[in-house]
């Protein structure tokens, strides 16, 4: 096992020797790599031991110990009493026997993704990689394979940027309900145990409750740095609970260590965070299952899933449509952001047909219209139209009803792209932001094309709008007009 004290000294030495120090002033020198701005679209992967019960969602390991919950009742009926069959007993059932990282890489490439972010460790505490910090990992138990390592090799062979996500912080309290009755979660629990530390859960899952102690925080830091050293991720994503005040010194240490390692590798790296875990300007903010209503001057990311109800696979997932996801992608990119879209593989390592079909449909659209997405930037206004996009976390629970008046803009070189989120049946599009004497546009439009269609639109500008007319253009997906500007 790893010498923890020696590794902590190594982290301190790297910080002392590097350009980035563990304070916000130093970390504000962070600069976003060009590739991330160009990429626009990535894949998130929630896959782990929770994919075996595949019931409710990825919080099954917590909820199965909450008496009266649907997961608790399901567990009793399906697997028996908790003291005889606990969450740890799912580990041998997590075999990943049909997992093929190359098949995943091919699918994600066909989907048009540019980076992929597997969850390296979720709240349940099971590491999906080879680790020297705990024996409860996929290399030593369950599949007995370094799943993360296999993904890294396959993804990078296909030109996909390899990234990782850590949700370890929430493990402080995630398994605590099992101590309330006779289950397999019982003291003594020590560092390295699967269920350790199982401390009391914060009220309403917010920041209240017992703050993490030094031993847990040091273990958290070591697990994060181990991922950095073993797998060299280009992006490191954190879930929500790290904004707890006790984490702040350790977050700064991790960021300094990671950013210095990136400089050592010759490729600047990125941290994704939620809420105010990091000081603004030291990393990239992320909005979970939501987005911003307006264009932002800073770069940001949305993470959401193909399913509304769960991040992991369950047989009852409620799926979004490819149209809805593409509309959100266009909206997010027009507002200076990236979309990180999650899929949930089955326990055997296969990706469900529903997830697969959604990804392939997105890829079909991007092959035709990707020039309006990749390597673009925002325009003077992100767009126009009557449909309100709610701002903030957890605001995408229902599909938005975009209209033919909802249009989003991106720009690249001499081209301005106007994407109509819901194409009108009569083929007439009015873009008010490009009208004569518009406050947003005073240039000359030399040519207009419809991506993916042979027909060249008729168009005219008047005091009300740029009016485009098509006869043969028809699509249930967003339609892109490419305008050459002089």
Chain-wise SSE layout:
Blueprint: H1 4-17, H2 24-27, H3 34-39, E1 41-45, H4 60-63, H5 70-79, H6 101-110, E2 115-121, H7 147-157, E3 161-162, E4 164-166, H8 171-174, H9 214-231, E5 235-238, H10 248-265, E6 270-273, E7 284-288, E8 300-305, H11 322-334, E9 337-343, H12 353-369, E10 383-384, E11 407-412, E12 415-420, E13 428-431, E14 445-450, E15 458-461, E16 466-469, E17 479-485
Plain-language structure description:
This protein has 486 residues and is of the alpha/beta class. It has two domains: 4-372, Glycosidases (TIM Barrel); 383-485, Golgi alpha-mannosidase II (Immunoglobulin-like, Sandwich), CATH 2.60.40.1180. The chain is built from twelve helices and 17 strands. The strands form three sheets. The chain has an eight-stranded parallel barrel. Strands 10-11-12-17-14 form a five-stranded antiparallel β-sheet, with helices on one face. A three-stranded antiparallel β-sheet has the order 13-16-15, with no helix packed on it. Helix 6 (101-110) crosses helix 7 (147-157), helix 6 (101-110) packs across helix 12 and helix 9 packs parallel to helix 10.
In short:
The protein is α/β, with parallel strands linked by helices. The protein has twelve helices and 17 strands.
């Amino acid at each position: 096992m790893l010498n923890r004290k020696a590794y902590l000294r190594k982290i301190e030495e790297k910080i002392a020797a590097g350009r980035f120090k563990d304070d916000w002033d130093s970390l504000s020198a962070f600069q976003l790599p060009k590739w991330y701005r160009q990429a626009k679209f990535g894949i998130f992967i929630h896959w782990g031991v929770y994919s075996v019960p595949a019931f409710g969602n990825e919080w099954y390991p917590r909820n199965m110990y909450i008496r009266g919950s649907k997961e608790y009742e399901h567990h009793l009926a399906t697997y028996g009493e908790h003291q005889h069959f606990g969450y740890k007993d799912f580990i041998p059932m997590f075999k990943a026997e049909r997992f093929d990282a190359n098949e995943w890489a091919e699918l994600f490439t066909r989907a048009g993704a540019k980076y992929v972010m597997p969850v390296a460790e979720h709240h349940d505490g099971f590491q999906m990689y080879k680790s020297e910090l705990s024996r409860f990992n996929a290399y030593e138990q369950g599949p007995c394979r370094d799943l993360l390592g296999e993904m890294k090799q396959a993804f990078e062979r296909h030109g996909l940027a390899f990234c990782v996500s850590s949700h370890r912080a929430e493990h402080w309290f995630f398994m605590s309900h099992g101590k309330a009755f006779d289950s397999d979660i019982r003291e003594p629990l020590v560092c390295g145990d699967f269920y350790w530390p199982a401390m009391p859960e914060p009220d309403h899952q917010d920041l209240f409750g017992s703050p993490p102690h030094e031993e847990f925080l040091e273990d958290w830091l070591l697990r994060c740095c181990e991922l950095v050293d073993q797998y060299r991720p280009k992006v490191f994503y954190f879930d929500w609970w790290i904004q707890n005040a006790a984490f702040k010194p350790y977050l700064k240490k991790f960021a300094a260590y990671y950013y210095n390692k990136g400089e050592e590798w010759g490729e600047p790296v990125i941290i994704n965070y939620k809420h105010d875990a990091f000081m603004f300007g030291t990393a990239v903010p992320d909005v979970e299952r939501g987005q911003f209503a307006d264009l932002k001057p800073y770069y940001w990311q949305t993470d959401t899933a193909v399913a509304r109800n769960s991040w992991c696979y369950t047989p009852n997932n409620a799926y979004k449509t490819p149209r809805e996801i593409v509309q959100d992608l266009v909206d997010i990119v027009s507002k200076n952001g990236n979309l990180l879209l999650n899929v949930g593989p089955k326990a055997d390592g296969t990706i469900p047909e529903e997830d697969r079909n959604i990804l392939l449909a997105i890829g079909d659209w991007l092959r035709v219209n990707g020039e309006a997405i990749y390597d673009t930037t925002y325009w003077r206004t992100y767009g126009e139209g009557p449909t309100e996009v709610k701002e903030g976390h957890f605001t995408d629970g229902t599909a938005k009803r975009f209209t033919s008046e909802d249009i989003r803009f991106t720009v690249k070189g001499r081209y301005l792209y106007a994407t109509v989120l819901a194409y009108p049946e009569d083929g007439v599009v009015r873009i008010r932001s490009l009208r004569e004497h518009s406050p947003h546009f005073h240039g000359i439009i030399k040519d207009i094309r419809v991506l993916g269609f042979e027909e060249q639109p008729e168009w005219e500008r008047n005091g009300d709008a740029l009016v485009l007319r098509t006869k043969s253009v028809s699509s249930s997906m967003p339609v892109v007009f490419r305008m050459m500007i002089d």
